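#lab-general

N.A. 3:47 PM
ok so I finally got the sequence cleaned up, no stray characters, all 167 residues accounted for. can someone with queue access submit it? mine expired

B.Y. 3:52 PM
send it over

N.A. 3:53 PM
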Amino acid sequence: LVPFLYACYRFQDLGVVPPPSKHVVSNDTLADILVIESCTSQEDQDQERWSVLKSVINILSSLSAPYLISDGSLLHLYRNCSVGQSDLDLSLDHTWWKENTEKLEDGLVNAGFNLTATFGNLNVFGYEEAWDKNGVKVDIFSSIMEGRNRLTGFWVQGKLYPCSMPM
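B.Y. 4:20 PM
back already:
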């Protein structure tokens, strides 16, 4: 199941558009093509939220950033073929982020995103930024690989908790 979920949110080559009757996603590590069955009967979608997600993914892809759609956004995409009604969550490789922070910030600002909050320190595990575009909040979490697990930080009342996802 985990490789399937990984395949569902790796859109570096495809971008994101409002889903057609079936949304085909390719996973280059497994060399498989998967169809997200929940996309065969999606509800009316919030086009602004899809537009914001597509915009941030286009920025990350243009920078060759190693990112993943994650957390609640991944769950909504998988279960409902939607972007949900809450914030949009993405995970970004921490090492890449430290080396390309200015390019990422310039890309987001030039596309109309506004930085609204930061959590932690860019040079330390668990860094996170919150951005907003047209009233849609986008959370970008730093992540690292530890063995076969991807680790992200989760902040609760100023305290960092590591979260692990097997890959």
